[in-house]
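Hi X.,

You mentioned you wanted examples for the new student's onboarding notes, showing what a folding record looks like when two proteins sit in one file. Here is a clean example. The first protein comes first, with its sequence line followed by its structure tokens.
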Amino acid sequence: MNEDTSGIPRPEEQPGHRVTITDDAEVSTYLEIAKQKAGVKPVPTDTLAPGAERDAVVIIDLGSQYSMLIARRVREHNVFCEVVSHETPWEKVAPLHPKGVILSGGPAGAYEADAPMAPEWVFKRGLPVLGICYGMHVMVRMLGGRVMPGDIREYGLATLHLSQDSSLFEYLPFSLPVWMSHGDLVAELPPGFSVLAYTGNTPVAAITDGNRLFGLQFHPEVVHTPDGRTILKNFLNNVCGCEGNWTASHFISESMGKIKEQVGDGKVICALSGGVDSAVAASLIHQAVGDRLTCIFVNNGLMRRKEPERTLEAFHKNLKMNVVYVNAVDRFLGQLKGVIDPEKKRHIVGEVFIRIFEEEAAKIGKVDLLAQGTVYPDVVESTSPDRKAAARIKSHHNVGGLPARMSLKLLEPLRSLFKDEVRQVGLALGLPEDVVWRQPFPGPGLSVRIIGEVTAERLEILKGADWIVMDEIRKAGLYRELWQSFAVLTGVQSVGVMGDYRTYGYLVAVRAVTSEDAMTADWAKLPYELLGQISNRIVNEVPQVNRVAYDISSKPPATIEWE
């Protein structure tokens, strides 16, 4: 096992490791000064000159849960990238005109007979290549070196020591902290390669052919490698020659062109949920095809209190779109009756949604496409067919929960974006801030925040508790600081005492997390006074609840949602 994806805990501070640059702002300033001295002119990041091509790199997904995290780090430097399967032929990649390739990590061992390898074109096209962890092992094996299981499994923080100068480590100290997660090692280098760096337990921690091929045993994409962003920036700028000219505005212009091409003369219906993803997708499509888009808002009864009313007002009045309202509360609750398994809940919600959209589309006339606000964390956790080497975490109702047979084709313009990127696009489109900054909400709604069967009574209990959580979080001014905050109605009931009487009520769990992209998350250290106020209000205002607990689990090993 090369890459361990069971969890990445936050390391303690390591005083004395960093000897130069102290934060991202200083890194950026230092790099700009160095560029000015070298005579490199800054590239505007708001627009591209007419006809200019944006820089691009390709990320080969070898099964890592963090492939899209690599993509996110690349895009932070305004370089466009796409994550593709390790089986993707050059013909599908060529239109991107890539300036480089990054090989992701993965759970396999490169010495295994059936281990996924990079496409042969990766090393035949003369492009710069960066292999990360398992990606480095693939590079070594394919170019004539040897990889083998190590005697010591290296997991966690390590100190990297550079053994020679390199453009990949420019502006960095000769010793720096990095994050390791591997059990294999490079036993023999390919011809023409040399060692760039080592750690106490890994004699071959970074390699190069001295020109365009580089391999790293550690993970520069995770926040636990403090200089990881600089290393990736050096690869993009120094090795690949990227200038960083891709932005949210450029994504919008490219996406609208693709949307127009895909839609043609057809019509589109868009599934509105009230969240930022569907709002941005709808706005993007609306700007591209205008009135040929009809938005459908389905009230499934699984939304937060007052959310259907707020959603309709935001989209109909503020965004000036055609919106069809469908009350399907009874239909969803009927289908969910007696269902306990969370995966079944997700699939049922997805199935009913699609059938309703097909019915509404038939009323509109000939409709060709169903638009959804699917984003990449939905895709990676559901393990869509284009990620054969990865493990499924859970299905999402709009990805893994979709029925096999659909009369509508899917239009998902945000499928490759992270939530923070979606928000950037939303702001660039001019969406209201209260829409853009809405906390993520699961597609299956409150059905996966009720442990056990979903009933009308249990929904009302959860809506009451959740309303209090959100109200107190907003009053405390923490709404935007938190990635998500919500209540969960557990299947547990416990004995309590209220007014000298015995009670037997529900246990409600409160969940609040901080995150950058939902791929990893830390539980939020909320003030005790705030937690106390939330608990007091819930047990006093929601009669069926007599106990409140706070969830202090991070992701991984837990997920953000309970189901």
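Then the second protein repeats the pattern, sequence line and then tokens:
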Amino acid sequence: MRSETFCAICCLMAAFAASAFAQQNDSCATLINVKAPGLEITKAAHAEAGTTEPIPWNQSRSAPLPAYCRVEGVLHRRTGVDAEEFGINFVLAMPDKWNGDFLMQGGGGSNGIVLAPLGLNAAGDTPGLMRGFAVASTDTGHKSHRPGFDFGFMRDQQAYLDFAYLANAEVATLTKQLITQHYGKPAAFSYFSGCSTGGREGMILSQRYPTLFNGIISGDPAMRTGLSNLAIGRWVPIAFNQIASKDPNGKPIIEQAITDNERKLIKYALIKKCDAKDGLADGLISDPLACDFDPETLACKGEKNDSCLAPEKAAAIKKALGGPKTLSGTQVYAGFLYDTGITNGLPFRGLLSPGPGIFGPATTDMTMDVDKEALAAIQPLVDSMSTNLTTFSAHGGKLIFYHGDSDPWFSPLDTFGYYKDMAAANGGLDAVSNWSQFYFVPGMSHCGGGQALDQFDLLGAMVDWVEKGKAPMSVIATGKAFPGRSRPLCAYPRHAQYKGDGNPEDANSFECR
């Protein structure tokens, strides 16, 4: 049985922890000899300071790593459906200059690869490993056969269960024991940080394993992938198909649904309506919930011209961003924010730049049965919707959410909706704010990018909250899109508001209001 095997690993590793090694290099090498049912250590070697790891999605942030012990292994190697080999592969990096804490990083997409154990997510300019965290990473139990989104592993039940919720908890428990053996003492505090799939994983851990981590950071979580796919893969393109030009076969050409000039018109009107609500017109909508932009105000009253939208286009945009509803008007997935990034082109395509679907070729359908498709899109094992976090909060756990306001994959309003529901189920916002916070990130696309200040150190803020009792009311955000600019990201219900004087590029000229 998996549970019996894992308990045996925990007991065995706890026994090993009784003796510490004089030299960490020697301690690292001996980890190759750890034996336990279901566990294979495939590598245990010391890496000297100055080695580098490729940093996914942002090579310019690559930097020499500190000296550390690298342990690689696999749990529960087996042959599954279609004779495919499965197993939970993991890697653990333990720096020589350890800060005493453990950080587990979340995955992305469909997982299936073991990302470098650096601890990048929401860490600003200094990844977790470089701060002294022992950092773990896992593929959650399967190998991806193509980049990004390969969900073929789901045909194997155990692989699906590992991806859904089991693997991260098992790897976290094991790597904590390896840390104890290597350093001769356990980690003082344990953290998890992830975005997208990693954000969902953080939510799952708070809901299903409430005492495993002291602090969890969940960014742009893929918390209801079936329903978000329904929104962006079906509802949004179908709304635009209904106004798009048709090819010779009568199929809609979705790329022609909204023109470049129309996107410019929409963005200009949106910024004019909502940008200065935070006290300063600066290209960022810092108070997204106060933005009352309505695309139908741009509808032409007479003949179509460059200063207005055809009424059917304005209506289609409003329908698309409003999110999927049943025939009776029931909202099955949240709508999207009107934010500056909705008109972006590549590489951070916004919702008003339709083209091939994010998860595959764009549909050419003109209608859909929302009632039927929404029911089929619910995924109970993967969806992270439980709001009962009484055990997590009672043991002192802290939970931070953040979400890019221009995320075209997963609606920030869906994550925010969960946060409000979770607060209501746990004593109300005032009570929950003692252990959980939510941050909107203006302009940011999915987990980063866009016309945004997308670099911020929530990891450091989380450590201060957990270990010093200092709740973060805001964190400073910067980004390449606005060189020299800084702004505070404020915990809901506050937003960054310009004080009325001072350098408009400096975060000190703003307050959380």
